[in-house]
Amino acid sequence: MSLRWLFLDLNSYFASVEQAEAPELQGRPVAVVPMMADTTCCLAASYPAKRYGVKTGTSIRDAKRLCPGIVFVKADHRKYVRYHKRVIETVDQHLPVKRVLSIDEMACELIGRERDEAFVRQKASDIKQALASGISPAMTCSIGVAPNRYLAKVASDMQKPDGLTIIHQHEILERMSGLEPRDFPGIGPRMEVRFHERGCFTARQLFALTQQEMRSIWGGVVGERFFQLLRGEDLPESESERGSVSHSKVLAPELRSKAAAWPIAVRLLTKACVRLRSEGFYAKDLWLSVKFLDRDPEKRAWHQRAKCFETQDSLKLVEELERMWHEMPRGTMLKVGVALSGLVPAHHHQPALFEDSRRESLMSTLDAVNGKFRDGALYVADAHAAIKTSTNAIAFQRIPGEDE
Predict the structure, then answer these.
(1) Distance of CA 98 to CAs 65, 67, 95, 320, Å?
(2) What are the C-alpha distances in Å from 87 to residues 92, 163, 234?
(3) Can you say how many angstroms the Cα of residue 76 is from the centroid of all Cα atoms in its chain?
(4) For 44-64, what is each residue's pLDDT tens digit?
(5) Where are the alpha helices (DSSP H) in 184-257?
(6) With contact defined as beta carbons under 8 Å apart, do 278 and 258 qualify?
(7) Under a CB-based contact definition with an 8 Å cutoff, are residues 392 and 77 in contact?
(8) Is the pLDDT of residue 191 over 60?
(9) Confidence check: pLDDT of 260 > 80
(10) Per-residue pLDDT averaged across 183-194, rounded?
């Protein structure tokens, strides 16, 4: 039996939670937003809203134009975390959740008789019914089942909303031949250009690439791993799967100047550093990204990278952030984000020749104090102005604690 993983993706999760909280919103176009301002954008949209063209990133002004009668709800991440825990508990009653991939995605490893298709279909039906009856009819999910977790995720996207897609080893190519390279996780806009340069525009052409060609396109062992995953090999997780630690924030109208947004950028970076240390990584790259409102459409997105020696040091990284901040072009800012990438697990960390162990102790002390007295008791001075104005954004790729 070739079915080894079940992947569950909650449909329009944040909007579904709001519909679960307010049943009168079920079946209606709903958008979750960070604040009630026409110049901000939608963080999530219900399927009725999506049918009008409203999606993540659509401005509130455009959403009103595209979908008259749309309902806007201000995001509340604590509510989404609570529902996330309820979903995990519900799914666990039917199949043990092996991995939580994000606040709205999880995977269950199938063993023994669980790999039988009839059993899988029944369990998928049981899970869907339990979510509807135990939480809310608004809480629907799409489920993919396949030989490995990667293809199960792809399968979960093939029927939305409320779908079930089962793909056996022998039918991978046939069932996925209608997809495009961008439908496969890991192939973003830049990587897609590389595939197009090789004459690869369809999933069938993607599967026809040799292992060596895949290595060449991806630049090494990642391409080889991707080649194997596409063919259904159930590979063990690699340490490199953790790609980055990031935080971003849509800015309120009064915070869209360079001076007003600086404390927020520092606050975002220090939060990312806390996560970096708690998850046991060092970073080699710091990214700053900004979206502008009043610039040429082709220049509204700006980003810059700073190369660092492997570090967890908040103060060093804030210094690099400040240098990049001074190089930022002028404009009315809409969104600011920071990301730490090039992650190295702590047990592979190579200390710098003159690394100061006292700084590492300082970071550990800072984390310990914030852990005891709640996040924000100690922080970098430049972040002070952001403490009073900060609001919690919903988390797409991680599950924050309710006390954040």
Answers:
(1) 43, 39, 9, 38
(2) 8, 17, 26
(3) 17
(4) 999 999 999 999 889 899 999
(5) 189-197, 203-208, 211-218, 221-230
(6) no
(7) yes
(8) yes
(9) yes
(10) 88
Helix axes 221-230, 211-218, angle to 10 degrees: 130
Secondary-structure breakdown of the chain: helix, strand, coil percentages, each rounded to the nearest 5: 45, 20, 35
The whole-angstrom separation of Cα 250 and Cα 383 is: 16
Cα separation, 43 vs 309, whole angstroms: 34
Residues in the chain: 404
Buried residues in 208-227 as b, exposed as e (16+ CB within 10 A):
ebeeeebbebbeeeebebbb
> Bridge-partner residues for 142, per DSSP?
9
- Which percentage of the chain shows pLDDT scores above 90? 57
Determine the distance from the C-alpha atom of residue 29 to the mean position of all C-alpha atoms in its chain, rounded to a whole number: 23
Scan for tokens 């690699």, then name that residue: 238
Q: Which of 29, 55, 60 is nearest to 44 (CA)?
A: 55
Q: Between these two residues, 275 and 338, which has the higher pLDDT value? A: 338
- In the block, tokens 């455009």 appear at 62
- Residue 266's CB is within 10 A of a number of other CB atoms, namely 25
Six-digit token pair at 351?
Answer: 């200390």
**Beta carbons within 8 Å of 144's beta carbon, 6+ residues apart:** 6, 7, 9, 151, 152, 153, 154, 155, 156, 157, 158, 165, 166, 167
The CA–CA distances, whole Å, from 282 to 314, 338, 343 equal 11, 15, 6
Task: Give the tokens for residue 250.
Answer: 């849509």
Is the distance from CB of 354 to CB of 320 less than 8 angstroms? Answer: no
> How is residue 354 written in tokens?
């003159």
Nearest to 232 by CA among 309, 155, 159: 155
Q: What single DSSP character describes residue 189?
A: H
